[in-house]
Amino acid sequence: MDRLIIKGKADLKGSIQIKGSKNSALPIMVSALLSKNTLKLKNLPQLDDIDNMSKLLGSYGANIKSKKDTLEIKCCNIINIDADYDIVRKMRASILILGPLIARFGKARISLPGGCAIGTRPIDIHLEGLRKLGANFQVENGYVVGEVEKQLIGNHIALPFPSVGATENIMMAASIAKGKTIIENAAREPEINDLAMALNKMGAKINVKNNGIIKIDGVNSLSETSHKIMSDRIVAGTFVIAAVMLNKKFEVKDIESNHLEALTSSLTEMGAKLKIKKTSIQIMPTTKLNGIKIQTAPYPGFPTDLQAQIMALMSLVNGNSQIKENIFENRFMHVPELNRLGAKIRVKKDIALITGNRNLKGAQVMASDLRASVSLVLAALCAEGESVINRVYHLDRGYEKIEHTLGSLGPSIKREKY
Ligand code: UD1
């Protein structure tokens, strides 16, 4: 396994160009299963999750050509409908293949997915939505087996919660189902729009309203297209928080800053000085930051994927802060590790109480999930002395070679095997 050695009180200078979003790329890669024609994707991040998804699609017989940050996926010879357990267990996004496979081939078999250990993360909303389109499911020996008698048929589906994954699964399946589907209380995350845009370029007829209603007119087949993946709002937000924590002048570029409104308004409330433009955010040093109260919520609320990072920042500011985690029940695993670095955070059920003004000190810590890992990196950059972050494989699922990206901007950060 790998670990990171980080020198604290780090510098951060210049700017960073944000690449394509992992959470947008994964479902769009899966959407290639809906068609026998080539899907060309640009602006892909170089991440383990992207490689794993390529392997997963490859195990179905997809033909994949990759060159730098582009991928060409062609799914004309699908050889089986069974997902490889070893890949699926690493990546929750694997569950997204269920809808497309049933829609195109009438059946699918996939082991219950893995990914970050941040709660129970059930798939009942995915299954219920696909059932409404006519699919039948059984769970046998840790596998979900789904099939449809003839073809999926459009329906009216009201989601009990605006699940991102379930919205994506149903939207993909409905795009080649017979007739019209309406998804009510659909997720409104920007990644949903990016997927709809890619599918529409392939010939799907999807209309995403910004009130959580998605209307889909099923089409017979989808054609060849190319699509540029939108920029990663979570990586962008992570670097904005890093610059605020280190109190440096820094610019985060190639982004859609409106995707980060919940973050930028929270940071502004804390006293951060931000110059927000359409495609960039510039962070300016400031003299005083204050504690605030936030709660995570589905988009456009504060993203659960930036909760751990802003918690690290809250440990440094004046006064106390509070975070209520509303999306995942077990997403405070970074708390004991941040406390090892000198933070003072208490958890009461789904609320974290953060005491501010802490002087963080380098320590050995253990990364748990993807965003938790990066919150430890941020805290280590601000701490006095050296920190060692063990078990960083989760980090590699979401941040491109962080020791190089960060290392080129000032901090001293080294990777080592252990
Ligand atoms: C979630 C985040 C997404 C983030 C991703 C990776 C939200 C709303 N979603 O997406 O922004 O990028 O994690 O960290 O913030 N649920 C069910 N049954 C289901 C599906 C989900 O009960 O079938 C529950 C989950 O347990 C969770 C909530 O719904 O409490 C959100 O799940 P969902 O949006 O589906 O999760 P992801 O798609 O993984």
List the helices and strands and how they pair.
Blueprint: E1 2-7, E2 15-17, H1 22-30, E3 38-42, H2 48-59, E4 63-67, E5 70-74, H3 85-88, H4 98-105, E6 107-111, H5 124-132, E7 136-140, E8 143-147, E9 156-158, H6 164-175, E10 180-184, H7 190-201, E11 205-208, E12 214-217, E13 225-228, H8 233-246, E14 250-253, H9 261-270, E15 273-276, E16 280-284, E17 293-295, H10 307-314, E18 321-324, H11 334-340, E19 344-348, E20 351-355, E21 364-366, H12 370-382, E22 386-390, H13 393-396, H14 402-407, E23 413-417
Parallel strand pairs: 2-14, 3-13, 9-10, 17-18, 21-22
Antiparallel strand pairs: 1-22, 1-23, 3-5, 4-5, 6-8, 7-8, 10-12, 11-12, 14-16, 15-16, 18-20, 19-20
Uridine-diphosphate-N-acetylglucosamine (UD1) is lined by residues 23, 92, 119, 121-126, 161, 163-166, 189, 298, 303-305, 327-328.
